[in-house]
Amino acid sequence: MPTPTPKTPIATINPATGETVKTFTAATDAEVDAAIATAAARFADYRHTSFAQRATWMHATADLLEAEADEVAALMTLEMGKTLASAKAEALKCVKGFRYYADHAETLLADQPADAATVGASRAFARYQPIGVVLAVMPWNFPLWQAVRFASAALMAGNVGLLKHASNVPQTALYLSDVLARGGFPDGCFQTLLIGSGAVERVLRDPRVAAATLTGSEPAGRSVAAICGDEIKHTVLELGGSDPFIVMPSADVAAAAAVAVTARVQNNGQSCIAAKRFIVHTDVYDEFVAAFTAKMAALTVGDPTDPGVDIGPLATESGRAEVEQLVDAAVAAGAVIRCGGGRLDGPGWFYPPTVLTDITRDMAIYTEEVFGPVAAVYRAADIDEAIEIANATPFGLGSNAWTRDEGEISRFVDGIEAGQVYINGMTTSHPELPFGGIKRSGYGRELAGAGIREFCNLKTVWVA
């Protein structure tokens, strides 16, 4: 998952026009130190608040966000170019995330009883307790949801948070800390740090910071993991993926092709769990490619504030350049363009929906993540080859498989190397389900019970 380079200014730059709307001054070392001190001091008492009190503040925050969803959607569209409809859907998904943890945190973190007699005790159990100040390093593609799925879990567990957001979504980042404060969370519970990537190491090495979570690029993940490893601090990493979308002969091919379009171009193609590699059984290959290409070509690209537009611009100029490089290199090596395939004229960082076929293993696009509305289609002779192609990537985040054969479903569930497998549907995230990957897609989990427990100390209690 690409992120802005360390030299990227902290600014709102409209990706539909390239216009710099508002710039921000990075926090000084002294200001960052003060924020960390505030967080550490707040944790000392916040950790002892009741689940009921935290839930009251979180429900109030959810109510505020729900009332302000249109305003927040416009802000996200301005900062990173997603359509207004998808931006509002993201805001409302955050409302759901807040309410999920407000309602379920106490149950998810309940004491785990053990067989006391077996271990020679009168009582024995394990208790989840918060660990302290957690730094979240978040990306721009889902600027509110990525941060909320951390904040909602961390705050309900009794931790406090520091947010280092992507430099191109500063206003969304500031909104989150503001709405949490207006919801009632005490000062210092959740703070946004307007800092560049170069300032992250200093925060990670501060002894008052207990752990970190990062969603972003593989290089960024390596850096955070290395620093936290040196400091012996827990991390959760979600580093993107190159998710497969497999279609077998028993599938409803028309439905698969329709969903495939949304699965590829959601969020203007900039989603870590977007389907990126379409692996189609040879018996239905021509049928699927024809339907899929026609639907991709029919999408409207343009101003993301226009309700008639399906796809807005890519979020950054450098991101579009990376997409172009991968597509151009593949075509030069023999890939066939079925639709799209070149930047659009005019201002803004637009790239059209693109379908490529005849991909070979020597092309970079075979294994690398394309963070834009570009679909790579592969032909598979059978289920064995489909699974082999699906796993032929260093990533393992999400996956999709379309089949109505129970035996094939079992093969895909067991055989695909990924943190998530969706059968006859599109990979997405739900507060109720664990979210995360394997291999170079990272480690650890967000959401559900697994997510709220990541930054807790599981303390064993034995009473004679």
Topology readout:
Layout: E1 11-14, E2 19-23, H1 29-46, H2 51-67, H3 69-80, H4 84-108, E3 112-113, E4 123-130, E5 133-137, H5 145-157, E6 160-164, H6 170-182, E7 190-192, H7 200-204, E8 209-215, H8 218-231, E9 234-238, E10 243-247, H9 253-265, E11 275-281, H10 285-297, H11 317-332, E12 336-339, E13 354-357, E14 374-380, H12 383-391, E15 395-396, E16 400-402, H13 406-415, E17 422-423, E18 438-439, E19 442-443, H14 448-453, E20 456-463
Parallel strand pairs: 5-6, 5-8, 6-7, 8-9, 10-11, 10-16, 11-14, 13-14, 16-17
Antiparallel strand pairs: 1-2, 3-4, 4-20, 9-19, 12-13, 15-18
Protein name: NADP-dependent succinic semialdehyde dehydrogenase
Domain Aldehyde dehydrogenase: 7-461
Keywords: NADP, Oxidoreductase
In short:
With 464 residues, the protein is of the alpha/beta class. 40% of the residues lie in helices and 19% in strands.
